Amino acid sequence: MLPTENRLRRREDFATAVRRGRRAGRPLLVVHLRSRTDPHASEGAVPPTRAGFVVSKAVGNAVVRNRVKRRLRPLMRERLCKLPAGSLVVVRALPGAGEADHTELVRDLDAALRKLLKGSPRSAASGDSPRDPGREPGGRAP
């Protein structure tokens, strides 16, 4: 289980991480990371890193979806200390995650986080950035 202060719960926080963060896709998971500080935290305090999970019906029935979340929570808890303070992380399970074993989930989660934390300019040019460089903010073409 994730500690209460490390849980991502609000819809707008999920949306911020997904829309404004960087993403790394793997065969079983897509991880979104927003490395900004939490706008809801009090000033002067270092906000904790928070994580949330999205497991859709495409992964399986309720039993399978809950099993996937139960398996991902402790994996993410072990990795929170490696992320910048105040980060928002959303882990989205893809349909294959329901049948995957522990080692496959660990491999994909670690590879996605490694890619996001590397932060090389090459990864931004390869399409990991949610923004389209040919568009202005607001969705208009230049």
Structural notes for this entry:
It catalyses: Endonucleolytic cleavage of RNA, removing 5'-extranucleotides from tRNA precursor. Strand 3 (50-55), helix 2 (62-79) and strand 4 form a beta-alpha-beta unit. The protein has four helices and four strands, in the order H-E-E-E-H-E-H-H. It has a four-stranded mixed β-sheet with strand order 1-2-4-3, with helices on both faces. Mean pLDDT is 83; it is low at 120-136. The longest helix is centred in the middle third of the chain and has 18 residues, at 62-79. The protein has a domain at 23-38 and 46-116: 2-Layer Sandwich (Ribosomal Protein S5, domain 2). It has helices at residues 11-20, 62-79, 102-118, 121-128, and strands at residues 22-25, 29-34, 50-55, 88-93. With 142 residues, the chain is an alpha+beta fold. The N and C termini lie far apart (46 Å).
